[in-house]
Amino acid sequence: MRLKIRGESKQDAGTGDGPVDAALKTIDRIVGCQGTLQEYQLRAVTSGKDAMGEVTLKVDFGDGQPITGKCASTDVIDASARAYMNAVNRKNTMAAMLKKSDANKKATPALKKKVAKP
Description:
- The structure is a single chain.
- By secondary structure, the chain is of the alpha+beta class.
- It has a single domain, classed as Double Stranded RNA Binding Domain (2-Layer Sandwich).
- It contains 2 helices and 5 strands.
- It has helices at 19-31, 76-116, and strands spanning 2-5, 8-11, 36-44, 53-60, 67-73.
- Strands 3-4-5 form a 3-stranded antiparallel sheet. Strands 1-2 form a two-stranded antiparallel sheet.
- A hairpin with a 6-residue loop joins β4 and β5 (67-73).
- α1 runs parallel beside α2.
- It is globular and about 55 Å long.
């Protein structure tokens, strides 16, 4: 599996209890996080030989808050890996937003003190 992270290409391979498990474990190694799959759903969104399968999953990255990922593809393994990456990206985005929010909360009292002085 090859992923592009902040413009840098990273590659790894792995094994697991089936191809989906192997893909998710490989993603964990590449991005440096450990997620626990709590829920996995696959449903057909189109019909026929080239039917699209939509994967929806929930992952716990250790904080007790499951994060949902979703993707559709004609390849179930591809859809699973992309749905997992969707959850990883959402986790990272939420962590960055919380960090920024915490930094703003810490800076706000200092700004109020400076404004209050004549």
